[in-house]
Recover the amino acids of this structure.
């Protein structure tokens, strides 16, 4: 495997360093003629420099930047309004970190300069190479966009980025002055106006150097790109009422080395990848400067991606997990940055002083994980019976689980088919009706008499195609086609029902069909090969794996405690979450539930569960679909949405025997 990294900055070099340790082939392509030194200095959270230490095996305190442990906030008058200890941060110069990361790359021939992205070259809908503006071409298997906030790679795969408006600009510079550093050692100092959007901050980056910055509201003051003298005059004018230390720093600054930064961001993306192209760092998520999260995020992205690529042979799983592990943190940081910007622009509305830093905390997404390979099939009735247990496991222990869905290929065709007692469709019909009564889960076996599936391969390939768009939407799609075949007697091997389910799950139907005829087939073949290699012959099969523990297999239907104890064998310290959702909230989490699922998740008896369901039904919050051997209860918002968009679509969703009560 060869990985092409587009961008030789912090994210790109860090990723390359980890790939080097793994023995993975890579090439770095940098648009500049030399190491990218543009940028001044920045704050890095402890979680960020832990990544560097994991990469280099050295404590960076001996090499990079200065530790910052205190934040002090003043008004321009000199009045102190806040002093607070902050979590371990370091302030360092960009060039120092870039140089440090560059030196970790052993084979410098893998770094190419003067390579500015031009376009991707495709073959059969898949990127096989990248072409640069100098005419050079690099072929590879995976392409990583690490080319910054104005990423050309992001634009190439997702189109124009809808950036937010530039409401705040920053002016940055560096000053050498040991006397000031001695007085403000280890301190992030900021002077901020309480009447207008204007501030000045400075932080030591070394024993004799500091970085300073000015933030200002572009609606009150603004400057276009101009001469060094114009920038110096503009800056001194902004700061004319600020304290003597600010004037002293500016008097010693070389404005020919200062620049204006236009701060902007964009909404969290629905995905960081498309096919075999993935984004990391600012290319994937651009942070406003109020959080000081950008560099830390770039480092974490690089390590997480490298870890996932090492963990999975299917790069789609790696990309999906990168997104799942990072998106919640990114969304929180985006919101915080915007909230801090709002407070900055409207200081009179600010209730209390705020620390302009984000706290990078370990989230549940970063807990130790147990990998669970879930071998299943869309027409597997035993997999359907396992849904209550699987849903409860996700609610209570989902933070510790990395569940991978493997399509098992249960029914290639009916030709020479013999699995257990089933040899023909009518056998499946009898089995479904029997197990429905035994396990109290609705199953309507008449589909095998009226319109039997010729194979489970089409819906399985459709699921793999859905995963190429969105893991969450793919799971919604899988649930929907299960309901279709198990309850509604629909032959889900037919495109008409695959298309219907895809639309309801919010998938791009045209892309789904194209992928079913292309990449999804390859992914399904990989699943079938994994089934063979793992010697899986019964569905569902769950293979648990983790560090310092042999794999544990669970085959078929088992009690919840079996799954719980298996997880705890890997992570004895795993903490069960209490299911605190109300019955109505459960239908937000799981828009459709059988009576068995609802009772199991709420810990209720069958009778009490049915009573609660009927109460929700009478309130118009849910409706019920009557199948031959039981009911499916559905969040009424789903039907309203379908009814609003198309009455025909709603009628396709349910049969005429459904009961629905509008609020």
């Amino acid at each position: 495997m060869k990985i092409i990294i587009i961008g030789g900055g912090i994210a790109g070099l860090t990723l390359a360093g980890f790939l080097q340790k793994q023995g993975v082939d890579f090439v770095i392509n940098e648009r500049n003629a030399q190491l990218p030194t543009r940028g001044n200095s920045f704050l890095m959270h402890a979680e960020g420099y832990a990544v560097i230490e994991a990469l280099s095996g050295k404590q960076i305190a001996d090499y990079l930047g200065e530790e910052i442990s205190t934040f002090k906030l003043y008004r321009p008058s000199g009045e102190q309004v806040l002093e607070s200890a902050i979590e371990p941060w370091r302030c360092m110069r960009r060039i120092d970190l870039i140089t440090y990361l560059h030196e970790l790359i052993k084979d410098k021939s893998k770094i190419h300069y003067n390579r500015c992205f031009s376009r991707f070259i495709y073959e059969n809908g898949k990127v096989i190479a990248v072409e640069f503006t100098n005419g050079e071409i690099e072929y590879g298997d995976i392409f990583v966009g690490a080319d910054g906030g104005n990423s050309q790679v992001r634009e190439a795969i997702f189109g124009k980025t809808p950036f937010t408006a530039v409401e705040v600009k920053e002016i940055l510079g560096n000053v050498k002055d040991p006397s000031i550093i001695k007085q403000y050692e280890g301190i992030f100092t900021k002077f901020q106006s309480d009447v207008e959007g204007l501030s000045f901050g400075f932080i030591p980056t070394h024993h004799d150097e500091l970085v300073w910055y000015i933030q200002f509201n572009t609606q009150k003051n603004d400057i276009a790109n101009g001469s060094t003298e114009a920038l110096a005059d503009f800056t001194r004018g902004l700061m004319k009422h600020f304290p003597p230390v600010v004037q002293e720093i500016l008097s010693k600054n070389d404005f020919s080395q200062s620049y204006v930064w236009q701060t902007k961001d964009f909404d969290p993306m629905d995905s960081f990848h498309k096919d075999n192209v993935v984004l990391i760092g600012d290319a994937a998520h651009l942070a406003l400067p109020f959080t000081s999260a950008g560099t830390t995020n770039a480092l974490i992205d690089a390590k997480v991606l490298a870890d996932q690529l090492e963990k999975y042979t299917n790069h789609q799983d790696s990309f999906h997990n990168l997104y799942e592990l990072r998106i919640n943190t990114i969304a929180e940081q985006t919101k915080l940055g915007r909230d801090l910007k709002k407070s900055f622009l409207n200081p009179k509305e600010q209730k209390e002083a705020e620390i302009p830093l984000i706290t990078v905390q370990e989230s549940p997404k970063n807990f130790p994980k147990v990998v669970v390979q879930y071998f299943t099939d869309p027409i597997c009735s035993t997999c359907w019976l396992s849904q209550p247990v699987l849903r409860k496991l996700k609610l209570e222990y989902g933070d510790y689980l990395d569940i991978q869905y493997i399509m098992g290929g249960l029914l290639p065709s009916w030709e020479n088919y013999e699995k257990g007692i089933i040899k023909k469709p009518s056998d499946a019909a009898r089995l479904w009706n029997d197990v429905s009564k035994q396990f109290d889960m609705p199953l309507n076996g008449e589909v095998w008499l009226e319109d039997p599936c010729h194979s489970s391969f089409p819906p399985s390939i459709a699921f793999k195609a859905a995963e190429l768009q969105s893991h969450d939407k793919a799971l919604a799609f899988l649930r929907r086609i299960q309901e279709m075949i198990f309850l509604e007697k629909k032959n889900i091997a037919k495109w008409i029902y695959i298309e219907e389910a895809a639309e309801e799950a919010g998938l791009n139907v045209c892309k789904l069909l194209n992928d079913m005829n292309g990449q999804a087939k390859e992914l399904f073949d990989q699943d079938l090969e994994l089934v063979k290699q793992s010697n899986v012959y019964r569905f569902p099969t769950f293979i648990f794996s983790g560090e310092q523990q042999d794999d544990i297999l669970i085959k078929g239907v088992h009690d919840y405690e079996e799954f719980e104890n298996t997880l705890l064998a890997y992570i004895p310290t795993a903490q069960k979450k209490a299911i605190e959702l109300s019955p109505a909230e459960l239908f937000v989490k799981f828009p459709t539930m059988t009576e068995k699922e609802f009772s199991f998740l709420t810990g209720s008896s069958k009778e009490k569960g049915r009573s609660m369901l009927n109460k929700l039904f009478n309130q118009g919050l849910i409706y019920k679909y009557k199948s031959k051997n039981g009911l499916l209860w559905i969040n009424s918002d789903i039907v309203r949405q379908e009814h609003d968009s198309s009455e025909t679509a709603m009628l396709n969703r349910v049969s005429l025997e459904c009961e629905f009560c509008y609020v």
